Amino acid sequence: MKKSDIKIQAGDAGYLNRNCWLVNNLNYSPYKRCLFCKFRFRNCLFLHYQLISIFLIVFFLALFLLIEGTVSKLVIITIFTLVIVYGYFFNKSTGKIIEANFAQAKAAEALEKLTENLEEKVEEQTKAIVEKNTRLERLLKVKSEFLDIASHQLRTPVSVICGILDMFKSGSMDSLPKEKQMKFIENAFLKGRKLNAVIDDILDASDLDEKQLDLKNSLAELDFSALIKELVSYCTMEAENKKISIKANIEDNIKIKGDKKYIEQAVCNLLDNAIKYTPAEKNIEIKLKKEGNKAILTIKDEGIGIPKNEQPSLFRKFSRATNAKEMHTDGSGLGLFIVKNIINAHPEGKIWFESEEDKGTTFYIQLLIA
Question: What's the pTM value of the predicted model, to 2 decimals?
């Protein structure tokens, strides 16, 4: 640090009280006590002493002149001697008073600064403790939710897979017809896929719970029309197996700015739910159209619908409608939570729904056109 950068404060050698007219004109401190003074010249104690001294001299001279009619040399010498003696002791005492006041002010300032620092540190530590407690509570909640999912959604497929493998290991599978064996193998494969899907949902939800999804660096122009047509074709066979009719009305050449992997994940989740919760002989309608500078995707089913009292919590983690649990016991309750986070992470992305129990549900996705 340069010498010129060091700020000289009151009490330091070389300090000049720029509030004082006398110090400013002299450009030096005439007395030691001036090093500790921050007052203006009119508030200077020594100035007050001088004014009082002049007043006393004039007063006593006038008094003697009135009483005696004259002022002797002895009187003048006596008056000035008293003033000088008074000034000597006044000068010493005021110097000590000014230094004492300065020391007291510095101590008060230091104490105030220390108090402020302590308050800041206490506030910082309190904030850190609150954040840690909040994080701990969230982790405990996640742990509890995970254990609940693990006990219901992970144990069942694992038990099925282990049971089928045990049948192969013990040789009891050998006595069954080949067709029957293949059904067991297919069941184990489906349970394995289900297990993998649940684990993926848990990992995705955990990541989204810790931080907001940021897609700024992965957004690109995406042919939304082509993607929706492709996803509809993928799920048509599954729908036909359940005797569900899919009707699609998709406008061509609708392009959006999005992340293909995440958009595909979100739309697939909604299509899977529509098929899963729609009974046989019912319909699913899929529409994609432009509305101004927005692309609106609509997925409407004639499924079981969502009870009105449970609709506000639909996008929360581990939330599943009561009738959905009754229809399909498996399910992580994380799908719609993930979908909402994905859509909201896109520019002007929005998702909402309309539903009536036993009549069906319609999901709407809004995305910005590129």
Answer: 0.55
